Task: inverse folding
């Protein structure tokens, strides 16, 4: 370790908000727009970035299902698959009529919660680092007061 002591500065995490950039139309049922079109199906939407594992847990969790149920979408389920969100048991019309806004809110809240948790963890780590830096400075100061000089004979 060096004798120099540096104080580092903590800056909050910069998690980009998890969003959906659009629908993967090539994965929609081929029969959409025909008389044989299903009433409900899975709509795959593309994430703006890969979701963090803790975001996935929140997005697929029971609180999300409760929120969607309270908004009248109790039949809908959200499933994360790589960089896609599969919105199951729904339709484009249902997404347009309010489900898309609910899903966007779920993603925003998941991103925000994970970022807040990371900020708390980073602040705790920074506080620990600061304490250790201060402790080390005290040890360095105390050890610098030690002289290994043979006592003079009288």
Result:
């Amino acid at each position: 370790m060096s004798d120099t002591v540096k104080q580092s500065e903590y800056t909050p995490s910069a998690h980009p908000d998890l969003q959906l950039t659009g629908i993967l139309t090539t994965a929609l049922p081929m029969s959409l727009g025909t008389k044989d079109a299903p009433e409900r199906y899975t709509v795959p939407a593309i994430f703006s970035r890969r979701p963090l594992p803790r975001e996935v847990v929140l997005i697929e969790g029971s609180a999300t299902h409760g929120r969607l149920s309270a908004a009248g979408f109790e039949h809908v389920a959200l499933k994360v698959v790589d960089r896609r969100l599969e919105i199951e048991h729904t339709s484009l019309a249902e997404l347009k009529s309010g489900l898309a806004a609910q899903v966007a809110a779920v993603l925003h809240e998941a991103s925000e919660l994970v970022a807040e948790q990371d900020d708390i963890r980073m602040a705790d780590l920074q506080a620990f680092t600061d304490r250790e830096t201060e402790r080390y400075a005290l040890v360095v100061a105390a050890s610098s007061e030690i002289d290994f000089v043979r006592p003079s004979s009288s």
Q: What stands out?
A: The CA atoms of residues 66 and 74 lie 8 Å apart. Strands lie at 20-23, 41-47, 77-81, 84-90. The longest strand covers residues 41-47.
